[in-house]
Amino acid sequence: MLHPPHQPLPVAVVPPQRAPAREDEAGPWHAEAVCRRDEAGLFFAPSKEPTAARLAREEAAKRVCARCPVMVDCREHALLQPEPYGVWGGLTAAERRVVLARRRRREVELRKSSATERIARAG
Fold this sequence. Notes:
Elements (H helix, E strand, L loop, with lengths): L50 H16 L4 H10 L12 H30 L1
């Protein structure tokens, strides 16, 4: 349907819905994220942000994450994707890279340990 120029388009009003409880697992985890109610700019850096401003913004974002009921789900999402920017699950992109590097080292060590055990049992 075409509308005459300079006339606003009709807007459908959708009533807010409560996300299902986490035990249900029927809905997406992010439906319960506290950050959905906050400004996205808090979680993502503007271009050429000064270091002091970035650190303050990231700390403010982490405080929001700290009170979030789905923080662990958010963090795992960001680690599995991996999300290259922003604060996710209370971690900055740099902090997530450290976590991922530690996980990779742990996996390598576990594989080596497992291989050593198999050789010892076979021996």
